Amino acid sequence: MNKIGFNVLAWSAGISDKLLPVTERLKKIGYDGVEFAIDTQSPTVYKRFGEQLQNQGLESTCVFVVGPEENPVSESATVRAKATDRLRQAIDCAHALNATLICGPFHSAFATFTRRAPEEHEYRRSAEVLHKAGEHAAKANIMLLPEALNRFECYLCNTMEQLVALVKQVDHPNVKAMFDTHHANMEEKKFKTAIQTVSPVLKHVHISENDRGTPGDGHILFDEVFATLAAVQYKGWLTIEAFTRSDPDFANAINVWREYSKPWDMAENGLRFIKQMGEKHGL
């Protein structure tokens, strides 16, 4: 069975000791690891928290985004340099946490649009930044896994076809790709085709319901998802990314205006669902 994780953004977007009872309970109910958003805190904070996670017997992964002031596809060389520096800082934090990967839409600035379709020179700029970050990630033994988002949050990479093309252009062994069922539900024609497309570079999967609530409660075709993941022999994490309004600043930033499910319902029922799907499809 693949390792199963839970993204603690359901409680908080920032690492602090307040999350330790949450991570302890996640371990107790059966999770192998937890996923954290990387913010602007120093690597020292992540190192101390990582040591406490190890004491709890949990592994960790990270998610990360960049804003317009550090946009890898910016026309400004200064802004692109800031993007490289910010990615290196995120890698240092993830390394301090003992995380193995950083996923997220850091190929371009989140929810930042040009009011035109993506252009080839933007992919080249992104690839150059990601290649430089990949060199730093290799030193820390961390994988960078950019993510395709839906059209309302991103314009550079909406589909697995676009994402795979970018990863190939980056051309670095520490830069691969991830797959998120929530975004794919909006942008892909078929889950099967999308997963097959990304499978050669697929290293991380977010199990997310169509409404960002408890996996299995909505209309995502999870039988197709799990069957295809098994068919391509996917061996990475299956991490639940579900959102709430527990952290209002974060919720407002990503347009979460209501509660979809209670956090512990998401965690407990979601874990049970993933295990059932894994056993059913031999994943």
UniProtKB/TrEMBL annotation:
Organism: Rhodocytophaga rosea
Protein's name in the database: Sugar phosphate isomerase/epimerase
Ranges where the Xylose isomerase-like TIM barrel domain occurs: 25-258
Superkingdom of the source species: Bacteria
Molecular functions per Gene Ontology: isomerase activity
Keywords per UniProt: Isomerase
Pfam hit, one: AP_endonuc_2
